[in-house]
Design brief:
single chain; five-stranded antiparallel sheet; four-stranded antiparallel sheet; Uridine Diphospho-n-acetylenolpyruvylglucosamine Reductase, domain 2; 3 domains; 293 residues; Enolase-like, domain 1; alpha+beta; Uridine Diphospho-n-acetylenolpyruvylglucosamine Reductase, domain 3
Length: 293
């Protein structure tokens, strides 16, 4: 199928130089402006006329010192609003200490998109298939949201409220993603099912962070993408495994529970029945691969 791109519709482009200026513009044009960090999702949608063009687009790219990937022993990992997918992918500290996030970003899009797109933008789109969302859910990330009224911290699992919908209210910008340190012996695995390659959206995404100890599951977090109205934690499946010996039978039971928790739909990319079965298969595979590393 050939995709026909038209010219961008008309809008006023605003390029603030500071976060304060960006927040002032967003407050001034409340309800009439959209914020972009990389624009790799919004601009193609505007060209294809999939969404109505806002009167104003506020581009954060000109704001200095928002593109950081920082780590501290007490604070953990901090990702600025303009940290690109490539910057996170190439960060030695992410590769070493947050391997599941590295696996997720490595699976995303093309090198061109990864060099332009941001982790914050991937989250703020609110799409159920966002690759970083299941990984960040299992990492128990928190999000710093800023507006002219001040700032607030929101748990990642509370951020998504529906397809393409988040808790961001008028005038708010995602300023920073905060990821706490994992226990030293924990292990993670992200698996993504696509028709062809990383260029495609996930049909199913499964993230697992597990802390095994002498064959017992001390802690487990399972994140699912593209199989519910929002990215989600499979908490019933986690409860099946917690405190249990990691046998083949208990892993299969947990994987089946994750499949039953999922709420996929039929669409042009895959039927719900297939997605649910793949949640079971990928959950089992991710758990087994995580504990074998």
């Amino acid at each position: 199928m050939v995709t026909f791109y038209r010219r961008l519709p008309r809008f006023e482009y605003l390029a603030p130089k500071t976060m304060g200026e960006a927040l002032s513009l967003l407050a001034r044009y409340k309800g009439r402006a959209r914020v972009i960090a990389g624009g790799t999702d919004l601009l193609p949608k505007l060209k294809r006329r999939e969404i109505k063009a806002p009167p104003y687009i506020i581009d954060l790219k000109g704001i200095r010192n928002l593109d950081y990937v920082k780590y501290g022993k007490r604070s953990g990992l901090s990702l600025g609003a303009l940290a690109t997918i490539h910057a996170v992918e190439s960060s030695p500290i992410v590769q070493e200490k947050f391997s599941i996030l590295f696996q997720a970003v490595e699976s995303m899009a093309s090198p061109q998109i990864r060099n332009r797109g941001t982790i914050a933008g991937n989250i703020c789109n609110g799409v159920p298939s966002a690759d970083t969302a299941p990984a960040l859910l299992t990492l128990e990330a928190k999000l710093k949201l800023m507006s002219k009224r001040g700032e607030r911290i929101v748990k990642m699992e509370d951020f998504f409220i529906g397809p393409n919908k988040t808790v961001l209210v008028g005038g708010e910008i995602l300023r920073e993603i905060q990821v706490p340190d994992l226990p030293p012996d924990s292990r993670g695995r992200y698996l993504k099912l696509t028709p062809r390659s990383s260029m495609d959206l996930a049909i199913v995404g499964v993230a697992v962070v597990i802390l095994p100890e002498d064959g017992i599951c001390k802690e487990i977090r399972i994140g699912l993408g593209a199989v519910a109205p929002t990215p989600m934690r499979a908490k019933k499946a986690e409860d099946v495994l917690k405190g249990q010996r990691l046998s083949e039978e208990i892993i299969e039971k947990a994987a089946q529970t994750a499949a039953e928790e999922s709420r996929p739909i039929d669409d042009h990319r895959a039927p719900a029945k297939y997605r649910r079965e793949m949640v079971k298969i990928l959950s089992s595979r991710a758990i087994n691969q995580a504990i074998s590393t």
